[in-house]
Amino acid sequence: MTINPARAEQIRTSAEFRAADANCTYVGCASSGAPATSQSSAFELHNLHTALSSGISGAGQLVAVVDSGFRTTHQEFGGKTIYRYGTLPSSDHGTHVASLIAGAQDDRGMHGVAPSAGLHLTAINPAGGTNLNLDNVIGGTLDAASRGAVAQNNSWGFELAASDFASHLQANPGRTVAQGLNALIGNYGAAKWQTYLDALDGFQREGVIVWALSNNEALASGDVMAALPHFDQRLQEAWVAAANGYFEVNAAGEITKAVRLSAPCGLAASFCMAGDGTTSAASATSDTSYSAGTGTSYVAPQIAGTVALLAEAFPDLTPEEWTKRLLASADNSWFSKLGVPVSGTSDFGNGVSHAFSQEWGHGVLDVAAALSPIGNVSYLSGDHVLTSDRTSLNEMTVAPSQSFGNGIERALAGTQVAVFDALNRSYNVEGSQLVQAPSPPMLPDLMQWVAVPPSHALPKPGLLLPNDAYGATAGLSVSADATGIFETSPAPAWHSQSSVLSLVGENVAAISSRELGPFAVTAVGFAGEGTHEEELGSVAGGGINVAIGEATRVSFGASYLDDQESLLGMEPSTAFAWGTGSKVATFHAGLDHQLAPHLGLFGRFEYGTARASGGTAGLIGSISDVDFSAFQVGMRIGNLVKEQDSLSFSVAQPLRIESGSMKLNIPTGRNAAGEIQQRQMAAEVEPTGRELDFGMDYNVPVGEGHLRVGLQYRVDAGHVPNASAAGIAVGYRKTF
């Protein structure tokens, strides 16, 4: 039985093509007066230039072509790796097809979709003509697979409707697909047809089968060869059927008109896509000749060439995954606008579904979209792309507390972290982009300070209770706030971050103070919310302080904090799961020295260790104990302008990590088996900056209230080098 490799290609006159593009920058474009591509070729491959300019050109990839013949000496194949299976007769059709796949990008004639790809060529019949030599095609298919071809292009077939083949199998129950092909197409023997089907199935382990539909528009169900996976489900793994159309696009690149020029996808709809098969490419007339034509034969090689681009860009994906990307990224946005009825939807997993129609399959080939992330980009916390939990890229960032400064960002800087789109292709994100830069607020601190009285001060000898305690029995008081309870002097509120107790939000504190000889001993226990306002009771702890002296007052002590939500103010995230909370121990020392009746010096230093509790996960393999420090020093002047006013100057360092490290598990990609690859690295987490807060506070009685003015300037704000901030606030408080 004979076949027509050209599939009744419709040859158009030069007048029906656009004028030649002098730049000749896209596939199939012509120069030197030859016909150029039709109006929409640049649309369906609109970002092919982007792939090529970024270095993706099919290098190192091999594309197999089964066709009528090839002129391998044509200039489009110069210097190219070409494997030949059997004898190769010369033919315009095969030469045109092969050049559309891999024609050289050398500023001559045209270039293919994958200009750097190699070719594996097999003739339908080594003796020439259109009689199918099935043995030769089987051998070529097996040989191409053994050489690692990533695609096989088949721009040939038979004028047998897929629906007629389906009817034959239905009328002959128990008959295999191979037996049906033998009965309706060619009497090569059912066993040989089965061998061919097995060869196609085996090829899909290495590459994608691309098959051109018939150009007979009357075949409403498509043709049998392009629709083979509908009958032999083994072939559904990596198979794309190709339809041809004429498309008009507007200035925005949107399809405004679509005219089908071939059989519809029909029974192949779920694994079919369309393209513009009106092209100009190499011909067999001479080594420098080109010809124009249109048909599905010239859509299929555009798809096969795109597979080579995907194989180069995504070598860790399987042929099945390349196929999914092609179909899921096809442009079908114009279906509803042009009234194309949708006949079904393919579910590609992880929320990616794509509608297809009986006429156009999944839509028009879009190279740029196939190479771009598809669906949500996520961090995968696991060992395999199919079983890992997914965290959206938008949700995987970590927000370090002020105490960490730029430490986490610095630890991840320059590190490439693999994230995955919904179809399991990995893309790299620079690690520091996953860190939200700390931006500690200044104005709220200042406003709170000027609006409320000073926080606690350590009780003087003979004074058992802090000023705001609201109940006491035998030296025991209950307070609504433990923050600042161990301060030697009322400190400006903008320095509230200079104590680990700043991590405690709303709380209830039980305070007990006793005089033991010259020493004043104060013990505190508290429980309440953390600064992130989680459920009540998420933070608890206590401490003890010993003080001595009056004019010169020295204090020292220790405290303990069980924080069930954060590590020095930093909350874990799914990707940065360092634990469930932390246990913090700290030592502090303070000094309050009265130089004169209205002149005093004060200072406080704190040093401690925080240990993460709970198991690590995600990017965090382990985290060491974290040491931190804080201090404040200042001078206070009273009765400066009028009686009972007060002016304070101070310098403070908020809580800052002094030492600590993390072991990170950084995903770097995946292999073809879907296993996520990782590398381990150690990183120090202390920041490179050291914030110093220079502040001034003035408090003066005015009428029946107090006027308060606060100013502050921050150097290396948030412990980030070269960052600075300044603020001023004024408040008036009056008691009624």
TrEMBL record:
GO biological process, one term: protein processing
Gene Ontology CC terms, in alphabetical order: membrane
Superkingdom assignment: Bacteria
Active site as annotated: 67 (charge relay system), 93 (charge relay system), 297 (charge relay system)
Gene3D superfamilies: Peptidase S8/S53 domain
PROSITE patterns: SUBTILASE, SUBTILASE_ASP, SUBTILASE_HIS
Keywords: Hydrolase, Protease, Serine protease, Signal
InterPro entries with a match to the protein in the record: Peptidase_S8/S53_dom, Peptidase_S8/S53_dom_sf, Peptidase_S8_Asp-AS, Peptidase_S8_His-AS, Peptidase_S8_subtilisin-rel, Peptidases_S8_Autotransporter
Domain Peptidase S8/S53: 58-340
Statement: the UniProt record of this protein carries the keyword Ribosomal protein: no
GO MF, one annotated term: serine-type endopeptidase activity
Stated family: Belongs to the peptidase S8 family.
Record's protein name: Putative Peptidase families S8 and S53 domain protein
Species of provenance: Pseudorhizobium banfieldiae
Species lineage: Bacteria, Pseudomonadati, Pseudomonadota, Alphaproteobacteria, Hyphomicrobiales
